[in-house]
What we know:
Elements: H1 4-21, E1 30-33, E2 36-39, E3 46-50, H2 57-73, H3 75-81, E4 82-84, H4 89-99, E5 105-110, H5 112-115, H6 129-140, E6 147-152, H7 158-164, E7 175-179, H8 188-202, E8 209-214, H9 228-237, E9 242-244, H10 246-255, H11 260-264, H12 282-305, H13 309-316, H14 341-348, E10 390-393, E11 405-407, E12 411-413, E13 416-418, E14 426-431, E15 434-439, E16 445-452, E17 457-463, E18 471-476, E19 484-487, E20 496-503, E21 509-518, E22 523-530
Helix pairs in contact: 1-2, 2-12, 3-10, 4-12, 6-12, 7-8, 8-9
Amino acid sequence: MIRSSQLSLLLVALVAFVIGLSSDRVYSELRVENGVVFNAGAGGNELLGLLKEGGGVQETLRDQKMEEMVRRHGQAFFDKSVSYSGTNHRLRRVLRRALNGESIRIGVLGGSITAGNNTPSGMGRMNTYHALFWKWWQEIFPDAVHEYHPVGIGAFGSAYFANCFLEHLPAELDLIIIDFAVNDERDDEYFRSFDHLLRSLLTLPTAPAVISMEFFVLGAYNILTGGGGNQLDSSRYLDVPSLSLRNPLLPELLLHPQRIPDFYGRLPISMGGIVDGRHPGLLGHLLAGEIVKNYVWKQIQYVEAHNSEEDRERESLAVSKVGQVDEEKEGVYDPKRIHTQEEHEFWQEDRSHVDVEDWGSRPEDLEVVSRMALLDRFNPSSFIPLSVPQCRSISGTREKLVLLSTTKGDKIENGTTYPGEGDGWFEWQSSPEKQYIITRSPNAQVTFSVTVGLGDVKLWYLKSFEFGLGDVICWVDEDWNMRVRLKGYWDTRANIGKIGTVREGLAPGDHLLHCKKEGTGEFRISSLITG
Length: 531
C-alpha cells in the first residue's frame, strides 16, 4: 500500500520522468500490485517498473528515469565523462545522510559558465548544469529541506576563489561542485591555486565532498585545453572526482561540426550573432547536468547496495584530520587552525606496523588531505601551513572592498591633455556578477587601507586582449622605490582575472595601498587580498 508521503514524493519524481520518456504520456493514476508499479491513467494499464527490493515507488521511478537517460545517450557517453572517480568516500558519506532524510548543503563555484552565460535570455541560472542537478537532487531527496548556494563570476578562476571563496560561500557545506577548467590557464601558477582551492574546500569544518566539472572552449583560446589538465592531476592526487563534458562531446562535434551551434549557441545579434565558443548553451548545460546526475546516481546505487552495519562502521572510521572550528568564535571557520600540533604529530607517528596491503584503503586515512602539493619538492617531514588570506572583494558579501580615497586624473580630448580634469576611481559593473573599481583617466590615484599578518598584499584585476585595458603603478605606504607595474592588456585571447603581488614581507599591521593609472586605457580592480 502506498503511503501519502510516498505519493507526494512520486508526483515530484514523475515530472522529470515523464519529460524524459515522452511528452504525451499521462501518469494521473498509479497503483502497485505485488511489487509492480502501473500507470492506470488515460484508460491504460502501462507497466512502469518493478519495485526495488527493500525500496519503494520513489526509488523505482528514480532508477528507471536514470536508466532511460543512459539509454538515450549511450553508456559510452557517461563512461567517457568520468576522468577520475577515486574512492568517492566523502560523496558516499554525504549520500548516505541524504538517503537517511538529512538536509544537505550544496555549494557551487565557477566562472561565467556557472553563472549561466549563453543560456536562454531571462532564464539565468535556472538552466545551468548545476541548477538542473539541484532540481533533480530535490526530487530524489524530498524528505528534507536542502540548501543551494550557487556562485558564478565571469572571468574569475581558482586563483581568486582559493583566496576569496569564503566571501561568497558559507563555511558549512556538505557537497561542493566546482568548474574552473576554462578560466584557469595551463601554468604552474594556476596549478598551485587549484591545489590550494581543493585543500581549502576539503578542510572546511564539515569535511565536504567535492566534485570537479570540466568544460571546454571552441576557438576562443589558442589551444583546446586549458587548466583542466593540471586540475586533473590535483584531483587524482587529492581524491576528488573529476567529470568532463569535453571527453564525450568534443569528438562528436569534430565528427559533426554542423551541430556546434546546438550545443554552444550564438552571441546576441548586437555582438555579431556568431557561435559563442566560450560558453555552452542550453543543450550543453543539459548534457553536463546529466553527467553529474548520472555520476551521483551511480554512487547512490553503491551506497544502497552497501548498507550493512559493517559498511556503516567502516565509513564512520574516516574522520578528517584537518579542519577546525573555533568555539570562541561561535563556530566561525578559522583557517589558521587547520593544522594543529596534534595533526602534525599524526603525520610523524611510526606507521611501520601497517600492512602494505592496507595502504591507500584504511578507512581512517581515506579522507586525510595529502600534506604536500605536487609542485613541491619531496620532504617527508614537512606539511603545508594552509591558510585562507583575508579577502575584500567589490562583489563580496562579508568584507566589501571600499576605496579609502581617490584623486582625479587627467582628461584627454582631441589630443589635448587637461591635468586634473578627468575622473577618479569609481565602482562600475559590466554585469551584476562582474563588479570592479575602475578608472579611465591617466594619473588618477586610488588608496585602500590594508591590514596584513604574514606581510603579503595582492590585487585581483582583469586582463584582456580586447577591452582596451592599460597599466597601473602600485606601492605600499610611502615606499615608491618598491612600486610594481600591473598590466591590464595581454595578447592571450582570453578575458580573465589575475592576481598581482604588490608587496611581500611587510611588517604586520595597518598599511596604505596606492595605485596610480599610467597612460591611456582602463584598469579594473576586483579584490584586495592580504596575508
